[in-house]
Design brief:
Radius of gyration of chain A: 26 Å
Strand content of chain A: 5-15%
Number of domains of chain A: 2
Shape of chain A: elongated
CATH superfamily of the largest domain in chain A: Crotonobetainyl-coa:carnitine coa-transferase, domain 1
CATH architecture of the largest domain in chain A: 3-Layer(aba) Sandwich
Number of strands of chain A: 13
Oligomer: homodimer
Chain lengths: 407, 407
């Protein structure tokens, strides 16, 4: 296991009872900033993401992406000795984070009141799909469930057809970032003399947070404007959408200041002052005409690169819609570390998204290894809790501790 | 102007030279946590989001949603007296945040080296679409440009058709949360005796961060698996998708543990052990059959509510795809404050998304007013910088300061 990076969170200990994605995202950010993260898993399989693809030498790349650098302890949290270990760890941690369904952690004996009684200075963060309380909180929660309830899913897809949804765990990841932010601010409060606190972070809130316009425009117009999905062209800005290039789709955006640049780029300077198209409102009203004019120009170009070059020469905001392969191999992404190569003892070298928080003067993308299930049982119990080897061995024999080095 | 809430960030001052969405999102979160945010705008119009819909009594609801509680000063940053004011404010601030195109802030005289020379303890955060450096950094940047480059846009939409994109500023909002998180951790470092630092936060990194699976699965399979958009049914989990209810679309999700529950809910307990469908792999291979079986059941139900009730009785993860109107008026959202009513002196009462970070024991959704352009010129210059009234008046007459109370 690589040493923790020398970074902002050195000296903080995070007790991590999260699984799969939103919670592990929050603690992944923290471990990359130097926190000691103790991931608690349960026998026999541990975090279910250990079963998610792809695997090599028993190790899941999915799990690895989210959990490098974290210690793994695996224990039976329903056994009294398991609960005792958790109580001792809570007493010695700065942060406690979990993302079970609401109510589960309390029934395990580790709800906020119980945790606060053990350690009033701890920051506890519970992550859920739909919130800790309220009529929807009891529903089984996954990313897309919250996306559907948040109104975001309904805002994606072609009008008249079914909604589409992103093939990426955007809500989970985003919620993990919300959680990390809240934890950081709560630690800041503590560092300035405050006590611990409890954070209730949900995918529902994180997704709904993304409506910069939709809710208020509905409200401001008393429902006269009903924002709705509009496919691959924006309903309120024109041109803003996807055009068919010679090889792939190309995103072109022009707010009012860019409209003359679009006209010049497509060889139609005559349109700059054309009274049919000189405001965004008029262009939206004649959207199909505007789209057709621009598309006709694209159709006459020899290549996507020629299209992008012509637009960029005039400073028209535009971009190719990259595939995953193009993203993964793009020199800008590789150079910046937006895509990084992770070297894992079992997986070998694998491309993964980079650390999105960049601090000048601190290490970025430090090497970190993922842990096998229960790999750090002995380390955590002896070094942090002061158990002796015999006691650790006895807990293993009693089935309170569990490990599987083949993960 | 309402007083700042008594909250975690009391005593911190944020100098905010951001506009529109990603930057203002970060400082909105901070002002709701009690920071003093001084928003710097430029004559004659200020933040361009003041022109974004909808308006009432000269005030933009778009602007209001992102900027409540912030002081507004409006100055000419190209005039030497304007630069002097900014230098004095930098010297007295804890955080400096900007989201101009890369390079602009340096040409104004406020790049990191310059800022650090004025105040080595300040945390400076620059937000951009594609990063501060590298071949793509110079391109004009908008949310969807970064979404296209990140590979996220290509992962949304029906297969074979054009990509779709969310009609919501997800990348900007999400990036603002990344920025707030990084600022919080950088302040924590400072609070523990560290110096200031510079943060380079980009939409590209934040969007790419969301690929929990796509990049590594492409990499692990050496390109044999090419993740791609798959419309309204997931390509790798079945059933996971949208089904046509009697009134609207319904999201239904079953990982392996939920498959028997789906079979029971749709009155097909015989399918639980059916060897054609008993693993996710088999169900994905026969996805259209599985989808047709479930859809046939939905078609026979009397209402969406009956569908949801039957599924929820068996604890099948499911959700209605809410419209914005349904979201805005849902009792759970209203009760939780996921949707809140903002009361603005000019706008009146408007529904907006709530504060997604929830701290137990601290005020949530405190009342805050948006500022007219330059409303706090005198307050900021006299109370913080110690200018006298005559000097402020002279700066106004010289055109260095500007205000428009009709905003």
């Amino acid at each position: 296991m690589a040493a923790l990076p020398k970074h902002i969170l050195n000296g903080y200990r995070v007790l991590d009872m999260t699984h799969v994605l939103a919670g592990p995202t929050a603690t992944r950010l923290m471990v990359e900033m130097g926190a000691e993260v103790i991931k608690v898993e349960f026998p026999p399989l541990g975090d279910v993401s250990r079963a998610l693809p792809g695997h090599r030498n028993g190790r899941s790349a999915y799990f690895t992406q989210q959990n490098r650098g974290k210690y793994s302890i695996c224990l039976n949290a329903k056994a009294e000795e398991g609960k005792a270990i958790l109580r001792e760890l809570i007493a010695q941690s700065d942060v406690f984070i979990e993302n079970f369904a609401p109510g589960v952690i309390g029934r395990l004996g580790f709800g906020w009141e119980q945790v606060q009684a053990i350690n009033p200075n701890i920051v506890m963060c519970s992550i859920s799909a739909l919130g800790q309380e309220g009529e929807l909180s009891a529903l089984p929660g996954f990313d897309y469930i919250a996306q559907a309830y948040s109104g975001i899913m309904g805002m994606i897809g072609e009008p008249g057809g079914p909604p589409s949804f992103p093939m990426a765990g955007m809500g989970d990841v985003m919620t993990g970032v919300h959680a990390a932010a809240a934890i950081g601010f709560a630690l800041l409060h503590r560092e300035r003399g405050g006590a611990g606190t409890f954070l209730d972070i949900s995918l529902l809130d994180a997704y709904t947070h993304c409506h910069e316009l939709n809710v208020q425009i509905y409200s401001m117009t008393n429902g006269e404007t009903m924002p709705t999905r509009s496919g691959h062209h924006h309903f309120a800005v024109c041109p803003l959408g996807l055009f068919k290039g010679k090889e792939d789709w190309i995103c072109i955006i022009a707010l009012q200041p860019q409209w003359p640049a679009v006209c010049r780029a497509i060889g139609r300077p005559d349109l700059v002052e054309d009274p049919r198209y000189d405001t965004n409102e008029k262009r939206c009203a004649a959207a199909q005409d505007v789209i057709d004019i621009i598309q006709a120009w694209l159709d006459g170009q020899p290549s996507d690169q020629a299209i992008l070059d012509a637009l960029q020469r005039e400073r028209v905001p535009c971009a190719p819609v990259l595939t995953i392969e193009q993203l993964a191999n793009h020199p800008h992404m590789r150079g910046r570390g937006t895509i990084r190569t992770v070297s894992d003892p079992k997986l070998g070298e694998v491309l993964m998204p980079g650390m999105p928080l960049r601090f000048k003067g601190f290490p970025h993308n430090p090497p970190l290894d993922a842990a096998a299930l229960g790999e750090h049982n002995a380390k955590v119990l002896t070094e942090i809790l002061g158990y002796d080897d015999a006691r650790v061995a006895a807990l293993g024999e009693a089935g309170v501790l569990f490990a599987n080095p083949e993960t």
